[in-house]
Each structure stands twice: as C-alpha cells, then as structure tokens.
Fold this protein.
Amino acid sequence: MMALMAMLIAPHLEHNVNLHRALLLILVHDICETKVGDIPFFEVSERKTTKAQAEIRAMREIRDMFSDQTGQKMSDLWHEFEDGKTPEARFARALDHLEVQHQHNLAAIDTWELIEYDLVYTKTSSRCAHDNTLMQIARAIEDQAQQKMIDAGIDVEAVRKRLAGRPATRRTAC
C-alpha cells in the first residue's frame, strides 16, 4: 500500500522527491522485521526498548546474506529510511504513518486498542508537517478515523481533552 500511495502522491507534493529512490526505501524499510518481528508503535516493553539495536544487528545479518554490492545497497537504503534526513526518507516515513492509520480506518473499530484512539490525533501530523500535500492527506485520514469513532459512539471530544492535558512531548512523539 505504501508503494501505491507513493506513486499516487509524489507528483502532487509541495517539495519534489525522487520517486524511484522513495520506492526503494519503502521496499526495504521493514526488512529487519523479518528477523526482529513487528513491534507496535505504542508497545511499552524491553523488546521495544532494544528494538533499534536488534534491527541494526538484523540489518548486518541481512546485508551479509547478499553479495557485497547488493547487501550494502540494501543496508544503505534501510539506514537512509531510519535516519529520515533525505526528502525521500521523510516522504517514505510519512507514508509509513499514513498507511498505518489508513489500514486502521479500514479495520473494524472493535479491533482498535484504546491508545489507537489517541494516535488518530498524534501519530501522522508530525511526520507530514514538512509538506502541505502530506498534511492535507493526514487531515483527511484523521477525519475518516474520527468519523469512524463517532459512528461507533466514541466520545472524540473526551479523547481530545485527554490529549490536551498531556505534555507536548508525549503528544507529538513518533
């Protein structure tokens, strides 16, 4: 889904990106999870605390499974995505967050955990703030999620008030 989103959104970005490079970043961004496992954004555990180190070790193992050139290219792309400094990496990381919320919007609300109500308002905007097009998409996805919650009888104003009472560093963390 992220690759499809990249293809559809990239031509409309306020700040151009190299779509080919962004697609390569998207292709390799989750590769370490094949060894480490997927860890939910909101999980609080020892596994979450050591995730970055475990993924770096996994990337070394994956890199070493391939020829020098191919393995190094995969490693470089993965590190570029993780560092999030290039325009393509910022775009791919924004899509990573947008795609997760979009998938949640498609899922039944009874599959959502309570913390995911909060994430509707906190998880995507900070990753998309560097581009107006991405911010518009983030708002649209947030609006869909909010409507889903309203339709399910969830008091979205109570969710927003609870978030307003939290320290800003927790609200905007990604």
User: Anything to note?
Assistant: The chain has twelve helices and no strands. The mean pLDDT is 91.
